[in-house]
């Protein structure tokens, strides 16, 4: 992946797939409380899918800080930039 907008787009695709949302519904301010299917199991699926998609590994602190889609994008961008 070259550009950060490509990273954001791929994050949106993964989130939409995991939570069965339309990509247009995946906004930066979206939180787990706003998504019916966002429970602990789907959170694990989300983390695993993102780690596989981007060949990255999140720390437990990072996983616990994933309170919004915007924060999720920030974490993925930071890992991609560092690799």
CATH superfamily: ACP-like
For the termini, the CA-CA separation is 11 Å
How many DSSP E strands?
0
Q: Strand count, sense and closure of the main sheet?
A: none
The gyration radius over C-alpha positions equals 12 Å
**Count of discrete domains:** 1
Total number of helices: 4
Query: Which architecture name does CATH use?
Result: Orthogonal Bundle
> Can you tell me the CATH class?
Mainly Alpha
Structure class = mainly alpha
CATH topology: Non-ribosomal Peptide Synthetase Peptidyl Carrier Protein, Chain A
Helical amount: 55-70%
Q: What is the gist of this entry?
A:
Helices cover 60% and strands 0% of the residues.
List keywords for this structure.
83 residues; globular; 4 helices; mainly alpha; Non-ribosomal Peptide Synthetase Peptidyl Carrier Protein, Chain A
What does this 3D model show about the protein?
Helix content is 60%, strand content 0%. It has a single domain (4-82), classed as Orthogonal Bundle (Non-ribosomal Peptide Synthetase Peptidyl Carrier Protein, Chain A). The protein has four helices and no strands. The longest helix has 16 residues, at 4-19. The radius of gyration is 12 Å and the shape is globular. With 83 residues, the chain is mostly helical.
């Amino acid at each position: 992946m070259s550009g950060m907008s490509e990273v954001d787009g791929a994050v949106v695709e993964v989130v939409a797939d995991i939570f069965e949302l339309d990509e247009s519904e995946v906004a930066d301010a979206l939180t787990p409380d706003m998504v019916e299917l966002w429970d602990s199991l789907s959170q694990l699926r989300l983390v695993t899918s993102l780690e596989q998609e981007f060949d990255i590994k999140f720390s437990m602190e990072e996983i616990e800080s994933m309170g919004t889609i915007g924060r999720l994008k920030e974490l993925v961008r930071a890992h991609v930039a560092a690799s």
